[in-house]
C-alpha cells in the first residue's frame, strides 16, 4: 500500500502544517482585498483545502478528506483569527511565510500524487493530480478574489514548475518500486529547494511574447 | 431518517420556492451586466442550483438533485422569462425580492445541513455544507459575472452569518435528537429574522482593516 | 447501448480532434493575456477538458475520462508547443480556427448528451449536460483568465444556441429510438452549420435591455 509513507500521526501533522501555511496566503490576500472576517475565513479555507478537495472529487474519494477530518477544517479558522489580529506582523514575516509555503507546495504535490495513485489512477494522471493538489487552492483563492491566478502570470517566480518536478519524481519512484519515506522526502525537499531558488533568483517561465510584438511592429510599421 | 422534516410535497414546494427567489438574484445581475437572454438563463440556473450541486458533489449524491428533478431545472427558466420582460418591475420590487431571498437562505441552509447529515457526514461538516448550499450559488453567480463575490465583501449587510447561525442550530438539534419539522422551522425563521435585521440595521462583519492603515500611516509618516 | 455511435477508434479520433481545436482557443487567450508557457498549458488543458470533466463529475463517471486517457491529456500540450512558437500564424488563421471550433462544438454537445444518457440521466438533463460538455471548457477558460465568459456576453455571435439545438436534436432522436451514427452526424452538422451562419451573419441573442434604458430615461427626464 503506497499511501503509508510516514507514520499516520506524522502524516497528519504534516498535512495540518501544510494546510496552515496555505491558509495564511489566503487570509492575507483577503485582508489586502479588504474582505470582512467571514471573507478571510472563506479564503483561508478555500486556499488550504481547495486543491485536496479537487483531487478527491476527481478520484472519487467522497466525501473529501477536508469534510471528514475536523483538524483540516479548524486549522484555517485558527489562521483566520491570527491574521485578523496580527496581519501587519504576518505580512512583515512574508519571507518566512514564503519559505513555509514552499514546504507546503512540496508536501502536497507528493502526498497528492501518492493518494491519486492509491485510488487507481495512472502515473501521468497521478502526477497531474499531485500538481493540482499543490496549486489548486491558490487558483481558487485568486478566482474568488477576482484576480488573475498568480499561477498563470509570467511576472511571478516559478511556482508550479517545482511542483511538476516533484510530482514527476514521485511517479518515477512509484514506477520503479522505489517509493518509501526516504524517497518521498527527497521529492518534497527537491520541490522545496527549487522553489526557494526560484524566489531567490527570480526564475520565470518564458512567455510566447516577443514574436507577437515583432509581428505587431511589422504590421504597424 | 432525519431527512423527512416535512411532507415530501411540502418539502418539494419549499425547494422550488427557494430556487425561484435565488434565480431572481442571478437573472437580475445578468441584466445589470448586459448579458443576453441565454446569459440570463445561465446565471439564473447557476445561482439557484449551484449551492445544491456543490453539496451533492461533496456528499457523493450524484447525479445531483438539480439534474434529476425537472422542476428544479425549469424554475430558473421561468424566472428568466419573467425577468427578461419585467426586469424594471422586479428591480423596483428589490425589497420584496430581498425578503424572499432571506427566506430562501434560511430554507437552504437547513435542508442542506440535514441532507449532508443524512449522507453520513459529521455535525461540523453538515453545518458547513448547509452554509455552502445556501450561499454557494451566489458565489458562483458572482464569479461567472466576473465580480468580487458579494459574500466576501465587507460593505454588504451580513448574509452568511445568519446562515452560519441557522446551520449551527440544525446540527445542535440533530446532536440532541431534537430535529423535527418544528425545530427545523425554528432554524429557518431564525435565519430569516437575522437576515432581515442585518438588512434593516446594516449589520456588517468587522474587517482586519484599521491596524493595517495605522501601519501604513506609520510607514508613510 | 447508445454510446457506440461510431467505431471506437473513429470516436476516439474525433474526441482528440475536438480537444485539439478547443485547446487552441485556450492557448491563444493565454498568449493574449501574456501568461507564461505554463499558463498557456493550463488554459489549453482547462478549455479542452473542462466541459467533459464537469459532465463526468455530474454523472458520477470518476475518474473523468480526461484522467484515464493519456491522449486527451497530451493533446493540449501539443497545442501549447504549437501556439508557443507559432501564435502569430495561428492568430492569422483565426477563421480556420473558428470553423474547426464550430465542429468541436457540435461534436462535444452530441457525445456529451449521449454519454449522460448512457449513465442514466433523463432526456432534459442529458441535453443540458451535452451543452455543458460543449461550452463548459470555454467558461472555465474565461473565469481563469479573469474575463466575463464570452458565452454570456450579448456582443458575441451565437455560440451556445447552436449547441442547445444540437443537444435537443440528440435527445429527441434518443426518445424516438432513432439515434445512430447517421442521425448523430446530422445533429453535429446542424450545430456546425448554425454556428457558421451565426458567425457569418453576426446572429446575436436579445438582451433585456431596451426597456431598462427607457425606464432610466423616463426616470432621468
Automatic annotation (TrEMBL), chains A, B, C:
InterPro entries attached to this UniProt entry: Gly_transporter
Compartment annotation: Cell membrane
Bilayer topology annotation: Multi-pass membrane protein
Domain Glycine transporter: 13-87, 99-173
Subcellular location, principal: membrane
Coiled-coil portions: none
Keyword line: Cell membrane, Membrane, Transmembrane, Transmembrane helix
Transmembrane segments: 12-31, 38-58, 70-87, 99-119, 125-144, 156-174, 180-198
Lineage: superkingdom: Bacteria
Cross-referenced Pfam families: Gly_transporter
Family: Belongs to the UPF0126 family.
Record-linked PANTHER family: INNER MEMBRANE PROTEIN, UPF0126 INNER MEMBRANE PROTEIN YADS-RELATED
Protein name: Trimeric intracellular cation channel family protein
